[in-house]
Design brief:
Blueprint (H helix, E strand, L loop, with lengths): L3 E10 L2 E6 L2 E6 L2 H6 L6 E11 L2 E7 L2 H11 L6 H10 L2 H9 L3 H5 L6 H11 L14 H15 L4 H15 L5 H11 L2
Antiparallel strand pairs: 1-2, 1-4, 2-3, 4-5
Helix pairs in contact: 2-3, 7-8, 7-9, 8-9
Length: 194
């Protein structure tokens, strides 16, 4: 498995890049978000990679940031989402925006992505809701959102069903306010988690 490539950028196009790594040209399919972060042709660059092997094809996908690679791998693990649709999603939405859409269950935002309809949007939410926590939070997202997420996860870990944990933490936020610490949210939410 090729984890990353470091070399000279030889070709830079919105959907592909070619890197010269010690005299070998590697062609990578890339999302538009990576294209926008690439330096001018002729400069050195590092791209994180994912190799996808199919019966009739061997493809290499490149990403400017590890978060993009992480999201790409999450997406292609979802039934019905292939590498091309995953690249389209990454071209339209950053990992942080995708995380926000999944956590808020925003079907409309997801179905606006290329290759994603209502059924696929719901499948993405269902299959990735518990996995997107490792992606970055959107810029400017309040720290409270992270505290709430951590408090819910802690209650679930202690045996509460997720719906009960979400309700209990919601009640705790109403009482303590949005800037409450995780520990305080958990302590108070435990009273409501019945």
């Amino acid at each position: 498995m090729i984890a990353f490539l470091k070399g000279t950028l030889e070709v830079k196009e919105p959907n592909r890049a070619v890197l010269d790594v010690n005299g070998v040209g590697y062609e990578l399919s890339i999302p538009l978000s990576t294209y926008e972060k690439l330096p001018p042709v002729g400069e050195r660059v590092i791209l994180y990679t994912c190799q996808v092997v199919k019966e009739d094809e061997l493809a290499l996908f490149g990403f400017a940031e590890e978060e993009e690679l992480k999201l790409f791998k999450m997406l292609i693990a979802v039934s019905g989402i292939g590498p091309r649709i995953a690249l389209g999603i990454l071209s339209k939405m950053s990992p942080a925006e995708f995380r926000a859409a999944i956590e808020s269950e925003d079907v409309n935002a997801l179905k606006s992505l290329p290759g994603v309809g209502v059924k696929t949007a719901r499948r993405l939410i269902l299959e990735l809701k518990d996995k997107v926590g490792s992606l970055p939070l959107p810029a400017g997202a309040p720290k409270a959102a992270e505290a709430v997420r951590q408090a819910i996860a802690a209650l679930v870990e202690l045996g509460s069903p997720k719906s009960v944990a979400e309700r209990a933490v919601g009640e705790a936020v109403k009482i303590l306010g949005e800037e409450a610490k995780v520990e305080d949210l958990i302590r108070l939410a435990l009273r409501f988690a019945v």
